[in-house]
Amino acid sequence: MRLVQREAWGAPAGSPAAHQSSTRGVKIHYLGMAYESRVHSLCDDQVRRIRAEHLANEAEGYVDIAYNALVCEHGYVYEGRGLHKRTGANGDQNLNRKDYAVCALLGSSGLTKPSDAMLHGLRDAIEWLRKYGDAGDWVGGHRDGHPTECPGARLYAWVQRGALRPGGGQDGGDGNYTVRPGDTLLAIARRLDVDWRELAKVNGLRPPYSVYVGQELHVPNKAVGQEVPPYPGREAFRLGKRHPAVTWLDKQLVRLGFDRHHDGDGYTPGSLFTEYTRRNVADLQRSRPELSGDPDGYPGPVTWELAHTLPG
Ligand SMILES: [Zn+2]
Ligand SMILES: [Zn+2]
Predict the structure, then answer these.
(1) Selected residue with higher pLDDT from 183 and 101
(2) What is d(CA 122, CA 134) in angstroms, rounded to the nearest whole number?
(3) 234-309 is classed in which CATH architecture?
(4) CATH topology of domain 174-219
(5) For residue 40, which ligand has an atom nearest its CA?
(6) No. of helices (H) and no. of strands (E), the chain
(7) Lower Cβ count inside 10 Å, N or C end of the chain?
């Protein structure tokens, strides 16, 4: 863990925040504003700026930077209020008493994709708070129990998968797929739009690459780090009309398992927006609290982003 202590980034040693003996767990936040990727030598500056903004915020009456820790895109963990200090970032006093707060230096535009280094840094911060700050096992996002987008769709998808380290060990950063009747490795790779050799490799499969029904396959490069293509606009999704974006959308629906409506021959990606497409999209919308108010089956920008970022 690469910890940058308070004095090292220009904060007075020891936060004046209230004592906190233990917590249920850790809540993950992001900046939620335009933020550009930068060289690490400028990260200190950003953390100092956040602290200055918090101290200047009279409405909140902060005594210090609000987070217990902050993590930059290079994986460094900045000590904020630190261990055994009550956060001010979770939304209200009740929520502040419940969990620690760790903020990723990640924007809602500009730098929006958490790097592997950042995910390792966030995991480092969580383990640090558990080991030395008596944080419990729970990990969530600022949006859990509080009306906010924070920490953004990508980071929240990672949190929901257990906030695991990317790559090795526990398969953090990857998705899963359960083999169904009639599947072959090639067919699965094609449907999920991944390289079949890569799929074979991460699952330890050798020639003749057989798979069996019910087998759990790890799917590489899913959700976290995946680029979300720009939302094509509502015109792209009209019943009976073709648009390339419908193929992209279909691939995500298949990846997520929202493919039970079809013409009897399985649901396969294609550019035509059909009534089956619409019903499968509606299933996705109904599965998400932020979309269930209007499950009309026509993807708006939030449906589009979730389709690309939810874990499979
Ligand atoms: Zn937040
Ligand atoms: Zn940095």
Answers:
(1) 101
(2) 17
(3) Orthogonal Bundle (1.10)
(4) Membrane-bound Lytic Murein Transglycosylase D; Chain A (3.10.350)
(5) 2
(6) 11, 10
(7) N
Strands 77-79 and 69-71: antiparallel
User: 19 C-alpha to center of ligand 2: Å?
Assistant: 28
* Adjacent-strand bridge partners of 70: 78, 103
210 CA distance to ligand 1 centroid (A)?
Answer: 45
Q: Which of 270, 200, 281, 202 is nearest to 242 (CA)?
A: 270
Q: Which two tokens stand for residue 231?
A: 């939302």
Q: What distance in angstroms lies between residue 75's CA and the mean position of ligand 2's atoms? A: 7
Q: What is the CATH number of domain 3-167?
A: 3.40.80.10
> Closest ligand to 74 CA?
2
44 CA from centroid of ligand 1 (Å) = 20
Q: pLDDT for 207-216, tens place per residue?
A: 888 888 888 7
Complex ipTM above 0.90? yes
